[in-house]
Design a protein that fits this description.
- The complex is a heterodimer of chains A (200) and B (662).
- Chain A has 200 residues and is of the alpha+beta class.
- Chain B is an alpha/beta fold and 662 residues long.
- Chain B folds into four domains: 75 residues, Ubiquitin-like (UB roll), CATH 3.10.20; 181 residues, Alpha-Beta Plaits (2-Layer Sandwich); 172 residues, Rossmann fold; 142 residues, Dimethylsulfoxide Reductase, domain 2 (3-Layer(aba) Sandwich), CATH 3.40.228.10.
- In chain B, the strands form seven sheets. A seven-stranded mixed beta sheet of chain B has the order 14-13-24-23-22-15-16, with helices on one face. Chain B has a five-stranded mixed beta sheet with strand order 2-1-5-3-4, sandwiched between helices.
- In chain B, strand 7 and strand 8 form a beta hairpin.
- The longest helix of chain B has 18 residues.
- The two termini of chain B are 55 Å apart.
- The chains are: A alpha+beta (200), B alpha/beta (662).
- Chains A and B meet through helix 4 and strand 2 of A and loops of B.
């Protein structure tokens, strides 16, 4: 059985009843915010730039000379031209993914014995943007960008492919490559924003 | 054997005196990491990974190379053992390039597995990936590749080539850290003695030796594994099929821990893709399978008593039973290609010995001291059988076994040359029969420890019957074991099931006389045994011809009706061969099995009452037919399948071009 607990209503004095004192008191926050500067944006006309570590649409970094040393060992087995996706089709992102079937990765062996990635598709309808694929990538290829407008009218618009991922990766690096990876603010600024922590 | 008592992790166990610590620990299901150890190979003791702690010696010892002694006390895992093993791995990782993302061994790599278990690995030397590059060694092969950087110097590949296959193709170059594995001659495919069995790839604990056609296409953990018995020849070797369940594609076929595989399965895994007949064909136009079956049953219904059915010895027992039920229902005449070679030889042998022929087992061959190969080179027709001639390493064997005395009676030695047998030359078929008749004078001391091996692909018809009689005579006088082995997978199963059958040239004569108008073939074996001109002549005389075959580029083009069927990795069933009755399991499921097609035909034909009354006695007379064709079986020939394999045919081309140059 559900027990219902009744709370006694506060008894108001006659003055309070006539002049809506409680009502005016409650409107205090509303009135104060009414004269403040607005913090929301008018979305389609104004857009915020998310922080660099935002987990948005996935992208592929290109072979641009900034590869980690691990890529150098792998590059001699791969047929990758400059400014192409540096994916080596190791399937590690798929291994790490909690929903592995959203990946479709295929590679082929060229007549000269080298490996070439033919397909890298991601069905973002199934993606939960956890970012585990980014952590798993041994060559720092798959990243998550600051782009977040990936809604589409049809299901096929929600699948991203190797080529457009590479384009997105190049543009992301060009826009935000020089930004520090993580923005640290000092303790005093943090206290000012969110107050002080009290340890027992 | 004398037994000793030892204690492993507090458990007392009694083992024979010649056991090593590792073998004793295996009895207790202890997991000890190894790189250079394999139970079928002699002890090498090079990797030092299997260190265990001996309490009495107060030191760590290698488990794979130390024999047990009475009162031994072993701890397979303690802090010291863990640290020692971790140190060994650190040493191995100082030079290992860590290119796992593109290495095809990743996922089934011993170094990766144990490196993770004893990890995390910290680089103890200030080496960058650039410093880890070793000298490269190009094998110049289309099939195998050596990546020197990844090698952990266990030399299992050299050992397996010498002690299991006997081909002695791989050698080590240089010493110590600079060891490179290299084939005896380059280019490897055409010049070296390599048999393309791929065992060096399978035993390699890391990705140092790779199978090129498999490279880069997929990753090991994405594939499903099905362990079954190989269907390329009658040896029934246990093999593992790695396939993609979603795409229904076989990526490779490899050996199991038994280390028994030859080029037929290892290179010939690509027969499942190319030129497959999925539906039916009617006069070379594609029709659905069901209407092809209807057309075939219409042909049978019209004139069942003038129809002949030729069975393939590659069918499973289940589809043979279905085909025989079909013949019984309709009164068709049954024959098979084994009536040319296997049945005459066995009939002759049984007539002479007076008892049923029993195949000698694998252990009989291993225990024997002398082997006499008669006719075709057995290392060409059944490559894995020749591994048994050499392989004698058994659990706990200290002294390497002595090589057997091997004799070869036949035309020319090809692959069997690896054992350098004593060659008794017999150029022609009559010469061979004469030599076999005088075998006891030519070869001294043929007794119970001798195995006589005869491949039925050597002789056909009357000569096969004669050699069967001669082998029976030798068996009677010397008690030597006789192995009469067919090339085809299920020839023994077919022979045991077929009761009333015709000699195949009799069927051909009946076709020429007009007594038979329709011919139904299962498989394409017939094209290997007769000349092409004769077959064309026969097909012209026939009113209707039909074939149930997996391929669309062979007899399917010269017959009226062709129905697509299954290959060996696509059907469940039982087969009888060298290892007896074995259950095979299918990997691919998208192809309709042969037995189901035959079942459908049985359901759609009429019962012919005359067929049941027909009790005509068939006189079997094995005579020589002028249109026999002798097939030269080489390492790359496996029935009618191997011509469909790109890998096998490319290898054949490289070898033959090389031999024409000289």
């Amino acid at each position: 059985m559900v027990k219902v607990r009744y709370v006694e209503r506060p008894t108001l004095s006659t003055v309070e009843k006539i002049f809506f004192i409680d009502f005016v008191y409650g409107l205090k926050t509303t009135i104060r915010n009414f004269f403040r500067k607005t913090i929301t944006t008018i979305y389609p006309k104004e857009k915020l730039v998310p922080p660099k570590r935002f987990r948005g649409t996935h992208a592929h970094r290109a072979k641009d000379g900034n590869e980690p040393p691990s890529f150098v060992v792998l590059a001699k087995f791969m047929e990758i031209h400059d400014y192409e996706s540096r994916c080596v089709a190791c399937y590690m992102c798929q291994q790490a993914c909690p929903m592995p079937t959203l990946f479709k990765i295929e590679a082929e062996q060229l007549p000269n014995g080298k490996k070439r990635v033919t397909t890298f598709d991601m069905n973002l309808l199934n993606c939960l943007y956890c970012g585990l694929c980014v952590d798993a990538c041994p060559v720092d290829c798959i990243i998550m960008t600051d782009e977040f407008e990936n809604a589409g009218e049809r299901r096929n618009q929600c699948v991203i492919h190797k080529d457009d991922m590479t384009e997105r990766g190049i543009s992301f690096d060009r826009r935000r490559g020089n930004e520090p990876d993580r923005i640290w603010i000092d303790d005093k600024a943090r206290e000012k924003l969110w107050g002080q922590i009290e340890w027992t | 054997m004398e037994k000793v008592k030892i204690t492993i992790d507090g458990v007392q166990i009694e083992v024979p005196k010649n056991y090593t610590v590792l073998e004793a620990a295996k009895l207790l299901n202890k997991v000890i990491p190894t790189f250079c150890y394999h139970e079928k190979l002699p002890i090498f003791g090079g990797c030092r990974m299997c260190l265990v702690y001996d309490k009495k010696w107060n030191d760590t010892i290698i488990a794979c190379g130390t024999y047990v002694y009475d009162g031994m006390e072993i701890e397979t895992m303690n802090d010291r053992v863990f640290d020692d093993r971790k140190f060994i791995l650190e040493m191995l990782f100082t030079r290992h390039p860590l290119d796992c993302p593109t290495c095809d061994k990743a996922g089934e790599c011993d170094l990766q597995n144990w490196g993770t278990y004893y990890g995390p690995q910290i680089n103890v030397l200030p080496l960058t990936p650039y410093d880890k590059i070793r000298e490269e060694e190009d094998w110049q092969s289309k099939y195998f590749e050596f990546v020197s950087n990844r090698c952990v110097l266990c030399l299992k590949c050299v050992s397996v080539c010498e002690h299991v296959v006997g081909a002695n193709t791989l050698f080590q170059e240089e010493r110590g850290f600079e060891i490179l594995i290299s084939p005896d001659k380059k280019p490897m495919d055409s010049e070296s003695s390599c048999e393309m069995c791929g065992l060096c790839v399978d035993v390699c604990p890391v990705g140092a030796i790779l199978f090129k056609p498999f490279e880069h296409w997929t990753r090991a953990w994405l594939l499903k594994e099905k362990v079954t018995y190989c269907g390329m020849c009658s040896m029934q070797c246990p093999v593992a099929i790695d396939y993609d369940d979603k795409k229904q594609k076989i990526y490779r076929i490899r050996s199991t821990a038994d280390l028994m595989v030859c080029s037929g399965a290892y290179l010939g895994y690509d027969i499942f893709e190319k030129n497959r007949l999925k539906e039916g064909l009617h006069n070379n136009t594609q029709i659905p399978k069901i209407s092809a079956i209807q057309k075939l049953s219409k042909v049978i219904n019209e004139n069942p008593l003038k129809t002949a059915l030729i069975l393939s010895p590659y069918c499973t027992n289940e589809s043979i039973e279905n085909a025989l039920a079909l013949a019984e229902k309709t009164g068709m005449k049954v024959s098979s290609t084994i009536t040319l070679d296997l049945i005459p030889a066995i009939t002759g042998f049984e007539e002479e010995t007076g008892s049923e022929y029993v195949l000698p087992s694998e252990n009989d061959i291993k225990r024997s001291k002398k082997i006499i190969v008669i006719g075709d080179d057995i290392a060409n027709t059944q490559p894995v059988l020749s591994y048994i001639f050499k392989d004698n390493y058994e659990l706990g064997q200290i002294v390497p076994p002595k090589d057997k005395e091997i004799y070869f009676v036949g035309k020319e030695i090809d692959t069997l040359e690896k054992y350098s047998p004593t060659h008794i030359s017999a150029e022609t078929e009559d010469d061979l029969l004469e030599k076999v008749e005088n075998l006891e004078n030519l070869i001294p001391e043929i007794d119970e420890d001798t195995v006589i091996v005869y491949s039925t692909s050597t002789l056909k018809g009357e000569n096969a019957y004669k050699i069967g009689k001669l082998l029976g005579k030798i068996k009677n006088s010397t008690k030597a074991e006789t192995l009469i082995i067919p090339v085809e997978r299920n020839a023994y199963g077919l022979m045991n099931r077929m009761e009333k059958f015709y000699y195949l040239p009799d069927i051909f004569e009946k076709i020429e006389k007009g007594e038979i108008e329709n011919l139904i073939l299962i498989g394409e074996d017939i094209s290997l045994h007769f000349t092409e001109d004769k077959l064309n002549e026969i097909f012209l005389k026939l009113k209707n011809s039909a074939v149930i075959t997996p391929f669309n580029d062979g007899l399917a083009l010269s017959t009226n009706i062709a129905i697509g069927s299954s290959l060996w990795a696509e059907e469940d069933g039982t087969v009888e061969g060298f290892r007896g009755l074995k259950q095979i399991r299918k990997a691919l499921k998208n192809v309709e099995e042969e037995k189901d097609i035959l079942k459908k035909i049985i359901d759609s034909v009429k019962l012919i009452p005359e067929a049941l009354k027909n009790e005509e006695d068939i006189a079997l007379n094995f005579y020589n037919y002028p249109h026999f064709e002798k097939q030269e079986i080489k390492l790359w020939d496996f029935g009618y399948f191997s011509t469909r394999s790109d890998n096998l045919m490319n290898w054949k081309m490289q070898k033959t071009i090389k031999s024409e140059e000289f």
